[in-house]
Specification:
Blueprint (H helix, E strand, L loop, with lengths): L6 H28 L5 H11 L4 H22 L4
């Protein structure tokens, strides 16, 4: 395997890998979960592996929701 030469190349390579992984997840996750020959434990493991690149989006979404709830909740309370 040939290593990338710099940080920019490294970033582009990882972005391509993530994009390909997410395309694979969208294409295969439902057929995989519907498969009768796969045990529940294997389905959970496969789902977690296929959804690994969605974690940053979920963290960002939770940060936005938590911040919104925090500030809306603090404005709705009295100062005492």
């Amino acid at each position: 395997m040939e290593a990338v030469e710099g940080w920019r190349s490294y970033w582009h390579q990882r972005s391509r890998w993530a994009k390909g992984h997410m395309q694979c997840a969208f294409r295969n996750i439902l057929p995989f979960l519907r498969c009768k020959n796969v045990r529940l434990r294997e389905k959970v493991d496969g789902f977690l592996v296929l959804s690994i690149y969605f974690v940053p989006f979920l963290i960002l979404l939770s940060l936005i929701l938590n911040s919104t709830l925090f500030f809306v909740g603090s404005f709705g309370r009295s100062a005492f």
